Structures are given as structure tokens and as C-alpha cells.
Amino acid sequence: MSEVLDRIFSFDGIGGLLGLPFVQNALIACAVLGLVAGALAPLIVARGMAFAVHGTAELAFTGGAAALLIGAGVGIGAVAGAVVAGFVFGLMGLRQRERDSVIGVVLAFGLGLGVLLLALYSGRASNKFGLLTGSIVSVDSTNLAVLGVVATLVVLVLAVLYRPLLFASTDPDVAVARGVPVRLLSVVFAVLIGLATALAVPIVGAVLVLSVMIAPGAAAAQVTANPLAASLLAIAIAELALLGGTVLSLAPGLPVSGYVAAIAFLCYVACRVLGRVRLRA
Amino acid sequence: MGSVTSQSAQPADTRPVGAAPAAVSLRGARLSFGARTLWHDLDLDIAPGEFVAVLGPNGSGKTTLLKVLLGILPLSAGEVRIAGRPPRCGSPDIGYIPQQKALEPDLPLRGRDLVGLGLDGHRPGLGLRSRRQRRERVEAALAAVGGTGYGDAPVGRLSGGEQQRLRVAQALVGDPSVLLCDEPLLSLDLAHQRTVTRLIDERRRAASTAVLFVTHEINPVLALVDRVLYLVDGRFRIGRTEEVMTSAVLSELYRSEIDVLRVRDRLVVVGAEDGCHPDHGDVEPVAHEAVCHE
């Protein structure tokens, strides 16, 4: 037991590891991803789009797998897959029930296709595994540039559309009456999710995208109803999970995604307990 | 397809005719979807401060009329003016109160945020400029509906009545000259129905805000109604309550035998069952006792 724990929690040579360029790249990527994911998360939660994010992530995986097979960049494949998913899910609007089943159908198809494409791929196995569970080694300076551009784009669009998006996400009936283009925003927001998801897939993996795209927003919603405070808290939690998870994973040399998911989950539990206590008080 | 239009604008009768533009003005208005015409040749002027109830069965175009006035649906023919201007999406001239629908308990929104969205939620940006002025207006709107106490509460955890008060504040925060209400009393209990109608009435008296009130049930607002617009299958009548809510007029509109009875201070309409159930099969209004039941 203690051997396992020692294996999981180890800081041997952490100082040296933190000095390595690929580790620094990974930390920068995580910081950028944390900002984007944290900023989007409260709106994702308000719109009840957790499942859509999961579906988007699986299609990013499919796109990444296809890119591997044809020898294109995995990141570009992931972005393409996720954006297509974003369009499809966004066009379905806010009707929960219909959306749920369509996402389920598309997700299963995408995942199956992805598995097939990976089986046909004869390159390095770590490339395959990385798509599903993430890998910090995958972040190089090219990825970093793509990450920076896409993240800037997402944050800018979010800043311009924030108020109508909040309106459309929380109060769609009145938003429609006030002339907010709710349907268009639904598509735009889904594409933003697609872009952010595509950034997250190479780092935390398709399976665990929810831990950075949903958990921070869900946690923040437990303790505050102030939209601005919720966004800031969600960003803080996403940063803590991604940066903390990366650092913790270094010395043991284990997948980063497990640590990120665990920290995000603990934050959610803590916020839930805190919210409960405050509700009683 | 006749209409009985009473052109005298009751609450504004102290004012010389033509002094102020009508809050709402429809001229020869027609609305069609393909071959189907919901209504046509609709002429209606609503004076500032006037309260007009819009009644009629499902699918008669009550909500569609609101959409036209909100500027989200164009007329097929004719002309529409709000405070003298064509309707425009997000116009500050218009306040809108929707049906009460339960909000999710963990919606990341406080009472003041819901109200604030009514002020500038349709505008792009983060809303960081002129925050102080915005806060003052939101505070004032909250105070006007007695909602100061739950400005910081998560909206989803408030009661239906409290949420609907916030809806009134949300509609009034922009200081509109026209208030459009789409069944705002549906699924509220009697006490909260009274509160919401009182708030709407106070506002129109204090600020001469015209009120267009779509409802399937006239009794909760009977005392406030200046005129009724009754729509049935493309036919309509406009006039004072006692002119429209009669057995003869409703029988003609519905083309079947309708009896309108006055019981104490309520109107009971018998024989229009098909017509007066709410559009939403899943929502059974709590206070639904007077109309539609034989």
C-alpha cells in the first residue's frame, strides 16, 4: 500500500524536472487551458451542456485519430473534430431531451470510429494512448503557438459576447423577447466549447476533458450565484487542477490526467460541502 | 371579420387628443404564416397608461401579437409603432414579463443579475462600463417590487412568487413606455397573482406605462382592464370590458353558444372550454376556478 502511495506521491528530483523545457511548455499550456476552460465552465454548467462537452471531446479524439492515421497534426485533427461536433450540438439548441439522445448517438459513433482509426495506425503506441488520457510530453512549441492563438480567440469572443451569452444561457425566453440571437449564440458557444475542448484533449485526454471543462464550473456554482465570482473561482480551480496535477505527476512519471481529475474532483466536493454549510447557516 | 374599435383612450382622457403619441399603434395589421392568416385589418391604439387585456383561445395569435410588438416577428401587412417608432429588438421602450417558469436551483445568477440582464443583457461586452449607474438602476427596480431583500439570493432558490417579482423588476428596470405581459400570472397562487398585478398597476399609474396583458383568464386583472382585445380564429373585438365580455359578442366570435355571467366581481364564461385552456398542457394553473368550468 505504502509502496503504491510512494509511487503516486513523489517529489524526487522535482526541481530538475521543473527546469526541463518540455515541462515548462506543459505548464504554460496548462495555465492557458485553465484560463479558457475556467472562463467557459460556469456557462457550460448554466446551459446544462456537460454531456455535449463530453461528446465534443470524443469527436476531438476521432479527429485526432484520423489525423494520426493520415499523418497530419493531431492538434489540427482534434480542433476539426471538436468544431464539427460543436456545430452539430449547437444547432440543436437548448432542447435538453433531444440534445441528450443525439449527443449519445454521435458520441458513440465518433468513439467507435476513433478506435477503428487507431487500430489502423501503426505508429508509436504512446501517441494512441495520449489521445485518450493525455500527455504533457505532447506539448511542444508549435502546439503552444496554436494553443495561444486559439485561446486568445476564445477569450476575445467570450469577452465580446459575455452578457448576451449569460442572458441566453440563464434566461432564454426573455433573452429571445429582448432580441438576443439565442440560436446563433448557441452555435457560437458550442464552437467555443469545441475549440477549448480541442486544446484540452492532447493535455488531459479525451476521456477526462470534463474534469477541466465542467468540474470547475460545477464547483463554483455550489458556492456562489454571482456570475463574475463564479467565473473567477472556476478559473482558479481549473488552474489549480491543471498546474497542480502537472507538477504532482512529474516525479512519479504517471499520466497527468489522473492528478488533474483528482484535484478537480476534490475541489468540487469541498465546494459542495461549503455550499451546504452556507445554505444551512 | 369586423372589429369594434373604441378610439377613445380612457385613461388619457384628461389630455387633449393627439397630445402624446400612442404607446402602441397598429394600423391595418395582418399576420399570416403561408396560407394561414392569424388576424388581419387589426387597428389598435393603446394610450400611455392604458391597460389592455388580450384574450382568446390557443393559436389565435395572442403571443404572436406580442412577438410583433417585441420586434422579433414582422407584420405581413400594415404598420406597427411603439412610442411612435417601429418596434426594435432590445428597445428600451419595451418591458417584457414572461410566464413564471421554475428556474434551476443552481443557476449561477442572483436576483440583481436577473434584473440587470433586463437592462442591458442584449448588449455585447462584459458590462464593466458605467457599472455604478447600472447598479443604482437595478437597486431602484428591486426596491420598487419589494425585492431588495433577495437581490443577492440565487434566483433558482427563490419561490415562484419572488421570482415573478424579479421578473417585474427586470421588465421595468429599463423604464419602458410599454409593458408586454405574456401570461405572467400562470402557475402563481392567488396571493402572488395579486402582488404581481398590483405592481404592474402601480407602475402604469406612476409612469403612464401602457400595459398589454396576454391572459387566458381575465378575472385576476378585471379591475384594472381598460379595454379588451378578444381574438378568436382571425375574428376579433376591441372595446371596453363590458362591451366585449358579453354573451352576444363572444357567441359571435366563437360562432357557438357562449354565456357570460357576472358572479359577484368575477366573469364566468361558459361554453368556450376549447378556447380558454392555457397553451401548456403540462401546466395546470392554480387559480383557474372561475373561467372555463361549467
From TrEMBL, chain A:
InterPro entries: ABC_BtuC-like, ABC_TroCD
Major localization listed first in the record, in broad terms: membrane
Keyword Hydrolase carried by entry: yes
Transmembrane segments: 26-45, 66-89, 101-121, 142-162, 182-215, 227-250, 256-275
Coiled-coil residue spans: none
UniProt keyword list: ATP-binding, Helicase, Hydrolase, Membrane, Nucleotide-binding, Transmembrane, Transmembrane helix, Transport
Localisation per UniProt entry: Cell membrane; Membrane
GO cellular component term of the entry, any: ATP-binding cassette (ABC) transporter complex
Membrane topology reported for the UniProt record: Multi-pass membrane protein
Pfam families: ABC-3
GO molecular function, one term: helicase activity
Matching SUPFAM superfamilies: ABC transporter involved in vitamin B12 uptake, BtuC
GO biological process: transmembrane transport
Keyword Transmembrane applies: yes
Entry's family note: Belongs to the ABC-3 integral membrane protein family.
Protein name, per record: Helicase
Lineage: Bacteria, Bacillati, Actinomycetota, Actinomycetes, Pseudonocardiales
From TrEMBL, chain B:
Cofactors named for this entry: Zn(2+)
Origin: domain of life: Bacteria
GO BP annotations listed: proteolysis
Annotated ranges, domain ABC transporter: 24-258
Presence of the UniProt keyword Hydrolase in the record: yes
GO MF annotations, alphabetized: ATP binding; ATP hydrolysis activity; metalloendopeptidase activity; zinc ion binding
Keyword annotations from UniProtKB, A to Z: ATP-binding, Hydrolase, Metal-binding, Metalloprotease, Nucleotide-binding, Protease, Signal, Transport, Zinc, Zymogen
Pfam families cross-referenced by the UniProt entry: ABC_tran
Classification via InterPro entries: AAA+_ATPase, ABC_transporter-like_ATP-bd, ABC_transporter-like_CS, Metal_Ion_Import_ABC, P-loop_NTPase, Pept_M10A_Zn_BS
Gene3D superfamilies xref list: P-loop containing nucleotide triphosphate hydrolases
GO cellular component: extracellular matrix
Residues annotated as transmembrane: none
Protein name as it appears in the record: ABC transporter ATP-binding protein
Organism: Pseudonocardia asaccharolytica DSM 44247 = NBRC 16224
